[in-house]
Design brief:
heterodimer, A: mainly beta, 11 strands, globular, B: mainly beta, 5-stranded antiparallel β-sheet
Chain lengths: ~120, ~110
């Protein structure tokens, strides 16, 4: 149990719709990262938020957007859904403070499985 | 661009046997991670390796890191069925905060 919670656990949408996924960080963590894991693949980095600002982005189009709130919880929004967006979406929280061991060790939530029909 | 390659990608082995999973990465990294993922589940952190020569062990699993060779290994000793899962290695880019994952090694241990 990592203390990172994601909702919903499963979601079915149709092409062209929009979706919002939610993540509650582990207590004390100020950084959240989002990953997309397609079936049979490793997770792919989407973006990271640190203190409510985007702090790095992977190779995903602008229709993937995010928010981080003052309590460090986060949302991932995907517009104009495509069939290839079907995947497990993982949120990970971490503490971006400058101790060598603790920095950036990411704790993953259970994920949201999105199916786009 | 940082690349992380694991091999083998699939491994079927008998209980009681030993085996090693290899992870190569292409550029300097701060940390190397090993995760376990059961079907339909999230990622469970197994090891974080921070420095050259680091070795960590937990039960039947032992991970090591050679930063000069940019190679990490995950060694399984006397495998048991409960270790069946997909194992991912991942590295982070020095000066960045994202983690790059390998494609995973799907391990199936036959009773």
């Amino acid at each position: 149990e990592t203390g990172v919670t994601q909702s919903p656990t499963h979601l079915i949408k149709t092409r062209g719709q929009q979706v919002t996924l939610r993540c509650s960080s582990q207590s004390g963590h100020n950084t959240v990262s989002w990953y997309q894991q397609a079936l049979g693949q490793g997770p792919q980095f989407i973006f990271q938020y640190y203190r409510e600002e985007e702090n790095g982005r992977g190779n995903f189009p602008p229709r993937f957007s995010g928010l981080q709130f003052p309590n460090y919880s986060s949302e991932l929004n995907v517009n104009a859904l495509e069939l290839d967006d079907s995947a497990l979406y993982l949120c990970a929280s971490s503490l971006a403070e400058w101790t060598a061991l603790a920095k950036n060790i990411q704790y993953f939530g259970a994920g949201t499985r999105l199916s786009v029909l | 661009e940082l690349k992380v390659e694991q091999n083998p990608l699939f491994l079927s082995m008998q209980e009681g046997k030993n085996y090693t999973i290899y992870c190569n990465y292409s550029t300097t990294s701060d940390r190397l991670y090993w995760y376990r993922q059961d079907p339909g589940k999230s990622l469970e952190s197994l090891f974080v390796l921070l420095s050259n020569g680091a070795v960590k062990q937990e039960g039947r699993l032992m991970a090591s890191l050679d930063t000069k060779a940019r190679l990490s290994t995950l060694h399984i000793t006397a495998a048991v069925h409960d270790l069946s899962a997909t194992y991912f290695c991942a590295v982070d880019i020095r000066g960045d905060d994202k983690i790059i994952f390998g494609k995973g090694t799907r391990l199936h241990i036959l009773p």
